[in-house]
Amino acid sequence: MKACAIIPALDAEKTIADVVVGARSHLGVILVIDDGSRDDTAARAQKAGAEVVRHVKNLGKGAALKTGLHRARALGFDVAVSLDADGQHLPDELPKLLADDDPHALVLGVRDMIAAHAPIANRRSNAFANRFLSTVTRTELRDTQCGMRRYPIDRVLSLGIKDDRFGFETEVLLRAIRARLRIVQVPIEVRYPIDRVTHFDARRDPWRIVARVLKTFAGF
Q1: 173-185 burial, b if ≥16 CB within 10 A, otherwise e?
Q2: What is the pLDDT of residue 165?
Q3: Is the torsion defined by CA of 60, 64, 70, 71 positive or negative?
Q4: What is the β-pairing status of strands 3-9 and 149-152?
Q5: What is the dihedral of CA 74, 39, 167, 210, to 10 degrees?
Q6: What is the DSSP letter of 208?
Q7: Separation of alpha carbons 126 and 144, rounded Å
Q8: pLDDT digit string (tens) for 78-116?
Q9: CA 81, 160, 122, 40: dihedral to nearest 10 degrees?
């Protein structure tokens, strides 16, 4: 099972090098998808040892992940582990997601957001999304919004994911369950630095996720 890492990044010049270096201690190929950054993200990622693919303008996290998955497939990889560029996801947790030897499984990182002292707004939005998606899919999903996942590349690209923004990760779950992909949920440690910069809006984006669920069920 050949594995690489995909890091979607937007204006992450302060953290990207550390994330890349940490990931390289576990995986040989790190793909950073610079999604229209206006700072030095791409140069710092490349200097740290990543292969950088750049979107000229911001297309969204989902679009960045799609670009990364297509590039990973072109390079001959079977699976790709995604992690965020902001330092929330600890590269030393990568082996936990790589431990399962089924290359066709979708492996989800499950955060303990209380232990990590995540902001209250993030905890509430995640709990809401977990309850909502577990109900509509009739599947116990313990962390539907964690960006640290292991994607079976061919299987995920065959699902026809349409969302290009934060709804991508939700749509993957919905379509993976419908396609009867095996889903593995693995507890991981994360951190929430005080100066962490995130592009996820804990008040607005959960409702966009609900909209994505409705669109997916409606066939859009």
Answers
A1: bbbbbeeebebee
A2: 87
A3: positive
A4: unpaired
A5: 180
A6: H
A7: 7
A8: 999 999 999 999 999 999 999 999 999 999 999 998 988
A9: 60
Question: Kind and range of the H or E element at 124?
Answer: helix 120-137
Q: Nearest Cα to 88, choosing from 204, 219, 208, 194? A: 194
Compute CA 22 distance to the chain's CA centroid, rounded to the nearest angstrom: 17
Q: What is the pTM of this model?
A: 0.89
Please give the structure tokens belonging to residue 13. 């010049």
Give the pLDDT band of residue 51 (cuts 50, 70, 90): very high
Residue type (1 letter), 67: T
Please identify which residue in the block is written with the tokens 């979107």: 55
Parallel/antiparallel/unpaired status of strands 106-111 and 149-152:
antiparallel
- DSSP helix/strand/coil, 27: coil
For residue 19, the one-letter residue type is V
